[in-house]
Every structure is written in C-alpha cells, then in structure tokens.
Amino acid sequence: STRSESSLATLVHGSDYIFCVGWSPVHPAVFALGDGTGTLELWNLNEDMEQATARASHSNRAISCLKWSNDGMRIACGDSAGTLIIYDLISEAAEPQPDAWRKFEKTLGIASSYTAADAGGPALEEERA
C-alpha cells in the first residue's frame, strides 16, 4: 500500500464534542464541523490550522448532521431538536483559487502532485428551513 497509517494533521477542538464533519466537495482545504453547542464551524486549513475561519450558531442544540451541496455553496445542518438550517457560503469562501492544492500540500507537508484551487476564509449566511 502507498498510504501511511499516520495522520496528516491533528486538530484540537476544545469547546464541545464534535458530532459531524464534512469536507468541501470543491475546496481541498475547507471542511465544516458541527458540535454539541449548536455551532457550525468552517475551517480553511490553507488559512489557519489552529482555529476555525468562520462560525455560526443557530441554537444551543447539538448539530447532529451536515451535508454540503455538490457545488460547495451551501451546507445543510440538522440539530438534535429536529431543526434544519441551510447556510449559504459567499463565493470567495467556496470557490478555490488555482493554487489551493499546492497550498494545501505545503500546509500538510506532503509532496505536490495536484493542481486545483484555493479561497479566503469562509463566511456564512443563514436560511431557516
């Protein structure tokens, strides 16, 4: 196998339990997580490896699931009360720039073998469903 069993990175989230995580379908360095306090966090590892680049809270109920839209422009979250929240990302956050893969590989310290994209820090707009 060409894969290593060691982790590429370890990120510490100290505020509460993490219930769900989802990687952006279009940006190599962006993922979202939902925690027990009802907070959705967006992380852009090309921007910061130690803290989220954006946060949104809609209640104090745990976010129990999340799903990205195929174009990476929306995230749907479900909480423990049965509420569905849909967040819109601004295009600068969702759409990667041409050097995103190279930046991401550098961030993780892995050999460059991709070309793709990067973006700035994610920003959220909330829609209640």
Structure report:
With 129 residues, the chain is mainly beta. It has 2 helices and 8 strands; from the N terminus they run E-E-E-E-E-E-E-H-H-E. The chain starts with 17 loop residues before the first strand and ends with a strand. 30% of the residues are buried. The model is unreliable at 111-123 (pLDDT under 50).
List the helices and strands and how they pair.
Elements: E1 18-23, E2 30-35, E3 39-44, E4 54-57, E5 63-68, E6 74-79, E7 84-89, H1 91-94, H2 100-108, E8 124-128
Antiparallel strand pairs: 1-2, 2-3, 3-4, 5-6, 6-7, 7-8
**Biggest β-sheet, characterized?**
4 strands, antiparallel
- Spatial ordering of strands, largest sheet: 1-2-3-4
| SS element count, helices | 2
How many strands appear in the DSSP assignment?
8
Low-confidence stretches at least 5 residues in length (pLDDT < 50)? Answer: 111-123
Overall pLDDT confidence: 77
Shape: globular
Order of helices and strands: EEEEEEEHHE
- Name the helicity range: 10-25%
Report the sheet-strand fraction.
25-35%
- Provide the structure class: mainly beta
Determine the N-to-C terminus distance.
Answer: 45 Å
Rg, Å, rounded:
15 Å
Summarize the structure.
With 129 residues, the chain is mainly beta. It has helices spanning 91-94, 100-108, and strands at residues 18-23, 30-35, 39-44, 54-57, 63-68, 74-79, 84-89, 124-128.
Task: Provide key terms for this protein.
single chain; 129 residues; 4-stranded antiparallel beta sheet; 2 helices; 8 strands
